[in-house]
Amino acid sequence: KQYKFKWLYLWRVNRAYDAPIERMPFRTEPNESRLEINKWVERKTKNRIVDLLPDGSITDLTALVLTNAIYFKGQWDKKFLEENTKDDEFKTLEGETVRAAMMTMQDKLSVYEGDGLKMIELPYAGKQFSMLVVLPSEDESIKTLEKSLSLSDINHYADLLTERKVNLTLPKFKFEADYQLKPVLSRMGMPIAFSNAADFTRMTRIPELKIDQVYHKAVVEVSEEGTEAAAATAVVIVRKSVEVPVEFNVNRPFMFLIRDNQSGTILFMGRVTNPTI
Question: How many domains does the chain have?
Fold first, then answer.
């Protein structure tokens, strides 16, 4: 069965999100439709996210599926030198000590310390985006910090960041997560969209539409890569400085956020409890 979408809806989503709508033969070719959507995701994420929609996620009863996949790998504005990366101790959430590849840098970076946490900003090349690393104090758990930290808190602490000379130690890590967001979105206040009471009549005149599932998968990879010229200049400057550096050693569970510096929008947010897995 085909669903005709209203032209005003198609125009708006294309204008606002550059998001085309494509009809898929869910009823007659459900698995082929799934594979085609997965291929589209792979192309958009440069083959870093595969199989977003798992086997069986689309059936002949599927009417509407919302898929979202993002891959982000930015180059640092100030590069970590690979020769400075050494294995060192990292204490996991379970209290186990593991050996992790720890990147090190001494440079001018923006930091904040107070209220039971430490925050450091690592800009990406172009400085439109930054990674914020949030480390709880040694007597505070990462879970407690997560529960108490709101978006307004994050923006508040980001405003308090001050440029200092810093000795930074940060583990290399790859963060990968996938979610089925139906229960999460339902708890956040939109359960009707997944029920028979859903109303998508602003999209189409066909009333019997509801969202089956929302799939989300994200990959964030953190390594030494960055803007080489900027790093070379910065290293020379800090070596001439007489300022006593601040120690920022990320050797225990921490939060990371990738943030748009212009709007303050959080693009990614995650927790690293063991960088070796």
Answer: 2
Question: How would residue 69 be classed by pLDDT, with cut points 50, 70 and 90?
Answer: low
What CATH code is carried by the domain that includes residue 58?
3.30.497.10
DSSP string, 159-214: HT-EEEEEEEEEE-EEEEEEEE-HHHHHHTT-GGGGSTT---TTTBS--------E
Q: pTM of whole model > 0.85?
A: no
Cα distance between residue 125 and residue 50, in whole Å: 27
Contact 246, 107 (CB under 8 A): no
228 shares a domain with 179: no
pLDDT tens by residue, 87-142: 999 999 998 999 999 999 999 999 999 989 999 999 988 888 899 999 999 888 89
The domain containing residue 138 runs over which residues? 82-174+221-272
Helix (H, G, I), strand (E, B) or coil at 49: coil
Contacts for 111 with CB less than 8 Å, ≥ 6 apart: 118, 119, 120, 121, 161, 162, 164, 166, 246, 248
